[in-house]
Design goal:
The complex is a heterodimer of chains A (about 280) and B (about 325). With about 280 residues, chain A is α/β, with parallel strands linked by helices. Chain A contains ten helices and seven strands. In chain B, strand 8 (about 195-200), helix 9 and strand 9 (about 220-225) form a beta-alpha-beta unit. Classes of the chains: A alpha/beta (about 280), B alpha/beta (about 325).
Chain lengths: ~280, ~325
């Protein structure tokens, strides 16, 4: 948003915290409506996705294909409820459409599809392959002389995919400092603890060894999210990896850090409780 | 009349045309996965280093990058060996190139057992099945320099993903340089009235040689070059079968799920009950060896096509 820099970090963070609550509520209601979808990994990414869409990215919902826009690729495509929520609340399409998630004839496919919805630049859902598309977009921006930044959001479990490291090497070869990968480090994947299913630590040293710049942040502290992502988009001669330490299911106490909320829809009662919590009506 | 020898393989002919076109068209880019001295993409890389990306031995990541490069409409040529591009990178081709209908053009070398000398790991003998099964994909299989050069222009000018099947070795020249080609078209380099040999790629050359063997014994074989496998020239086949009433499908590929199955299904759908047989790999892997000897061993050389055609004529 154009006025963001005129406001203090505290003001911006307060605004984004309010927006993130709206995004979280939309995630829960959307997955409840579909009775299918991924709450946990959507909620863990909700704060930094909100910061990108409501503050940091150079985008225009009225002109979704504006050539110089920043690009966003959700490489962990199963978390698309957070993306759909952010896009709808930012004005890319009517929020009423969120309740059509995963239904026939809906533009809100089970995993994001580029040609279906305004604001979605890359199809994703098969883990590891959104990241490579983001690299291609960063190369395309450079070739076209555009100054935009390409953001890719990866899950920590996604780092198991070998192709992630093909892309990491390729991005470093071309010193794509217009590429920012945000790793949603919530330490849970489908079958359990990420560091038990397939230990990937030290993630920071891995990316550093691939000649990336690495930054870390508390993915739920909006001030840190803003200041870290602002630093990440500064050109440094290297691609940047931001490790966002997050909690899967963040914002809904009974979902937080619980494996089973990776891909389980809430019941009517769970939806009610979740929304009350998010709105702050219960402690 | 025997065919003149080719000076260059189709993998080289298409790249020569690509480099020519690049001089007038600054918009497209070329990706390779460390096989540029074999695909000849290095010719482009030497001339246009800013538009050439060697992304290392990483076909899957390279195909994903191609999708990203094409996301805003840019045309991207991805060069490599068919086995790797159509199997290791298959998922990226399907979900991130074909599904969003992007302008990614796959220039795929070492088709069928034309890479015989390298052995099975390097022979693309299922690529037509994989590629022609994907929605939105156009599939071309040129047989010589003229058709390979034309395939470049067809690939560049056809919206969406295109797969071009190329060969390792220089074979023969079939078409005059001014010959025109189109997506969904075919050519009939030999006219006949007893049997149609429908074929593509190097099998066009074997089929023409087979037609000469058959002519010597009084059998008139028509050679139908279906250089565009998807979409393919249904009207051309219908007219050819009107003339001949018998069909041999020849492909340097598995017999399953390639040209032969496509044509057989069409015959069934259209009530064309003609004697039919196939030449191609019979649910088997090939092996290392000389190209000609390997064709012979696996029933895809001119003599084998002639035998199959003779048998079809006897069934009429």
């Amino acid at each position: 948003m154009t006025t963001s820099n005129a406001r203090s970090l505290d003001e911006r963070a307060a605004f984004l915290e309010m927006k993130a609550r709206e995004v979280r509520k939309a995630i829960v209601e959307m997955v409840h409506s579909a009775q299918s979808g991924h709450c946990g990994g959507s909620l863990s990414a909700a704060d930094f996705v909100t910061a990108l869409y409501f503050d940091l990215m150079d985008i225009d919902p009225a002109e979704p294909r504006k050539p110089g826009r920043d690009r966003f690729v959700l490489s962990k495509g199963h978390a698309c409820p957070v993306w759909y929520a952010a896009l709808a609340l930012r004005g890319y399409f009517p929020a009423e459409e969120l309740s059509t998630l995963r239904r026939n004839d809906s533009r809100l496919q089970g995993h994001p599809v580029a040609t279906y919805l305004p604001g979605i630049d890359a199809t994703s859902g098969s883990l590891g392959l959104g990241f490579g598309q983001a690299l291609g977009m960063a190369l395309d921006a450079r070739l076209s002389g555009r100054k935009n930044t390409v953001y890719a959001v990866l899950g920590d479990g996604e780092l198991n995919e070998g192709v992630v490291w093909e892309t990491a090497a390729q991005a470093a070869k071309y010193r794509l400092d217009n590429l920012v990968a945000v790793v949603d480090r919530n330490n849970l994947q489908n079958d359990g603890r990420a560091d038990v299913i397939m230990p990937m630590e030290p993630i920071d040293k891995k990316f550093e060894a691939f000649n990336w710049r690495v930054l870390e942040m508390d993915g739920h502290d909006m001030r840190q999210v803003l200041s870290t992502l602002e630093k990440a988009r500064e050109r440094s001669g290297r691609p940047t990896c931001v490790i966002a330490r997050t909690i899967k299911g963040k914002g809904v106490s009974f979902m937080e850090d619980k494996r089973e909320w990776h891909g389980k829809p809430p019941s009517d009662e769970e939806r009610r409780r979740a929304c009350e919590e998010i709105e702050g009506r219960t402690p | 009349m025997s065919l003149p020898p080719a000076k260059v393989p189709t993998r080289r002919a298409i790249m020569d045309r690509l480099v020519e076109a690049a001089k007038e068209d600054p918009s497209f880019v070329v990706l390779d996965s460390d096989i540029g001295y074999s695909t000849y993409s290095y010719l482009f890389g030497d001339a246009f280093p800013d538009r050439y990306f060697n992304l290392g031995i990483a076909e899957l990541g390279t195909m994903a990058a191609a999708a990203g490069l094409a996301a805003d409409g840019r045309t991207v040529f991805v060069c490599g060996y068919g086995v790797f591009l159509t199997m290791r990178a298959l998922e990226a081709v399907r979900s991130f190139v074909c599904y969003p209908h992007l302008n990614v053009k796959i220039l795929s070398s070492h088709a069928g057992v034309t890479a015989a000398i390298d052995g099975v790991t390097h022979q693309a003998t299922e690529d037509l099945a994989f590629m022609s099964t994907l929605p939105n994909m156009t599939v071309l299989a040129p047989c010589d320099s003229s058709s390979a050069r034309a395939a470049f222009d067809l690939a560049r000018n056809t919206p969406g993903p295109v797969y071009v099947r190329l060969m390792r070795d220089p074979l023969k020249e079939v078409y005059a340089p001014e010959t025109t080609f189109r997506v969904g078209g075919s050519h009939t380099p030999r006219r006949g009235k007893d049997v149609t040999i429908a074929c593509l790629g190097d099998m066009v050359i074997q089929a023409i040689e087979a037609s000469e063997l058959l002519a010597a014994e009084g059998i008139s074989a028509e050679v139908l070059d279906l250089y565009s496998l998807k979409p393919w020239d249904e009207a051309g086949l219908a007219e050819s079968l009107d003339r001949t009433g018998a069909l041999l499908a020849a492909e340097n590929h598995q017999r399953r799920n390639g040209l032969g199955y496509e044509l057989a299904a069409w015959c069934m759908r259209n009530g064309r009950s003609v004697p039919f047989s196939q030449a191609g790999l019979a649910d088997t892997f090939a092996e290392s060896g000389a190209y000609g000897k390997t064709l012979e061993k696996f029933g895809m050389d001119a003599a084998a096509l002639a035998r199959a055609a003779r048998e079809l004529v006897s069934r009429k």
